[in-house]
Fold Ras-related protein Rab-20.
Amino acid sequence: MKKPDLKLVLLGDMNVGKTSLLHRYMERRFQDTVSTVGGAFYLKQWGPYNISIWDTAGREQFHGLGSMYCRAASAVILTYDVSNMQSLLELEDRFLGLTDTANDDCIFAVVGNKIDLTDDYDSESDMEGERPRTSSKIRKQVDLEDAIALYKRIMKYKMLDENVVPAAEKMCFETSAKTGYNVDGLFEGVFNMVVPLIVKKKASGHDETVNLAQSKPEKSKNRCC
Ligand SMILES: Nc1nc2c(ncn2[C@@H]2O[C@H](COP(=O)(O)OP(=O)(O)OP(=O)(O)O)[C@@H](O)[C@H]2O)c(=O)[nH]1
Ligand SMILES: [Mg+2]
């Protein structure tokens, strides 16, 4: 199996839709999921590069595995559910510390999924990024500004200079795995951000990504642990 050039990890509480986002992006559809056990990974070719994307379990009982999955990650997607404020709070309380094992120049994205459930979204108009209001849905509990504030706190926690890292507005997304809203924008936005890191690493001869042949996972989209 070809060695991935970089590693991207999805973290977040159970039920926020991490697996569904990955299915939507990789398989172009929304399908029933079961709560993830341990973790799973996909391989994605992006231009000349191979990216491994790791889906992790949000359930508390698998929490101990999180920092292992984050080891040497170049990008972490912290995912919450826009209809559930607690899921945003958990990112800071429970998941951020797991990223201590990621690369120093790791890029972070904060993603609010299930936007389709909220009164901030109209599926009839889900075209070209439009998102007018309707009245008949759940109240949105987390605003994009809350996610942006979290992103800024993450940068502080990582002791990264806000003027050097990607702008918060560029790294906070709202998505719907169900309708596909902004899912390509999320993954491709993150891929484009990390490509310069691969180029830099290759140029300096420090290619330190995980060798999948050694870390013993399976074919694309297989479960492990
Ligand atoms: N309406 C709606 N439901 C969603 C969306 N994304 C996921 N779901 C549903 O939310 C539930 C949980 O989705 P998963 O993708 O399994 O969540 P997860 O974050 O992978 O959960 P764990 O594996 O337990 O950590 C499922 O019933 C999905 O169908 C979305 O964008 N909109
Ligand atoms: Mg899952």
